[in-house]
Design brief:
By secondary structure, this protein is α/β, with parallel strands linked by helices. The protein is built from nine helices and seven strands. Helix 8 packs antiparallel against helix 9. The structure holds S-adenosylmethionine.
Length: 265
């Protein structure tokens, strides 16, 4: 992979992104995949992908018209389409045409709103065990990209959207009986953050928690305790089903008020 990216003088090498790509994608090199890259520019990375993934179809999209002849993007396994990554009509026509993608790389505008909207639109069409890469995540930290570096935790950046998805990855473990299920629960296998690039792997994630049952810690503990000591059922009922439940409800109410006062929903 280094050789190919070097040959096409791609800046993905100097940014250290090729190290990350190699780590996740080397095993897929000879597979027949559909790879979508958002952002074509002068076609360096599209050319590199097309040479590296010889058996795959490489689809590049760009908001600007790309001159295929001038950029020598005529390899049989390259398709280039003009459109915006945040245009729902364009993205749905793309999905209609190609159905699903095994690898998606967002190297487009790098504006948080664009990154977030493309991810939301494209995630359903990412194949099982497929990878979604987002490059140049540093724009999440720069106010000139319409972001807020002065309130890192609560600004609506794409890095925060992916940080929040870590909770969806661990949805089974959240000991809040009032937890509201999210579309992403059970659909994400891993999320890896690197300097300025992140990788999400889609896949079935339905492994049960060993500590929490249906978003309740006390329910799980109660069942375990009575299984081990059936004769103490009444005592455990009062402890876990009444006392601990009241405690959980109290904490829930306290946090609800806190979020309400701070306007954090
Ligand atoms: C960083 S360059 C892509 C570089 C290329 N992937 C490479 O590594 O050789 C970003 C490209 O994204 C395109 N772009 C900007 N906004 C976009 C949008 N909303 N939708 C699709 N492409 C966009 C730009 O026209 C530009 O060509």
């Amino acid at each position: 992979m280094y050789k190919v990216f070097n040959r096409f003088k791609s800046d993905k090498l100097e940014h250290g992104y090729v190290d990350v790509y190699l780590n996740f994608l080397e095993k897929l090199k000879n597979k027949k995949l559909k790879i979508l890259e958002i952002g074509v520019a002068d076609g360096k990375s599209i050319q590199a992908w097309s040479h590296y993934f010889k058996n795959s179809l490489i689809i590049g999209i760009d908001i600007k018209k790309i001159d295929l002849k001038k950029l020598n993007l005529k390899n049989k396994n390259i398709k280039i389409l003009k459109g915006s990554q945040s245009d729902p009509r364009f993205i749905s026509s793309l999905i209609k045409k190609y159905k699903n993608f095994d690898i998606i790389i967002d190297d487009g505008s790098h504006f948080p709103n664009d990154v977030i909207s493309s991810f939301k639109m494209l995630f359903p069409s990412l194949s099982q065990n497929g990878y979604y890469f987002v490059e140049d995540t540093q724009t999440s930290y720069i106010h000139f990209f319409k972001e807020n570096p002065f309130d890192l935790k609560y600004s609506k950046t794409h890095i925060n959207v992916f940080k929040e998805l870590v909770d969806r990855l661990n949805y089974q473990e959240i000991a809040n009986p009032f937890y509201r299920k999210s579309y992403y629960d059970g659909k994400i296998k891993s999320i890896s953050f690197f300097h300025n690039i992140l990788v999400l792997k889609k896949g079935l994630n339905e492994k049960k928690s060993n500590l929490v049952l249906n978003n309740s810690y006390e329910n799980k503990r109660y069942l375990e305790k009575i299984r081990r000591n059936p004769d103490k059922q009444l005592m455990y009922f009062f402890k876990y089903k009444i006392f601990y439940k009241i405690y959980t409800l109290f904490l829930f109410t306290l946090n609800f008020l806190k979020k309400f006062i701070l306007l954090r929903f």
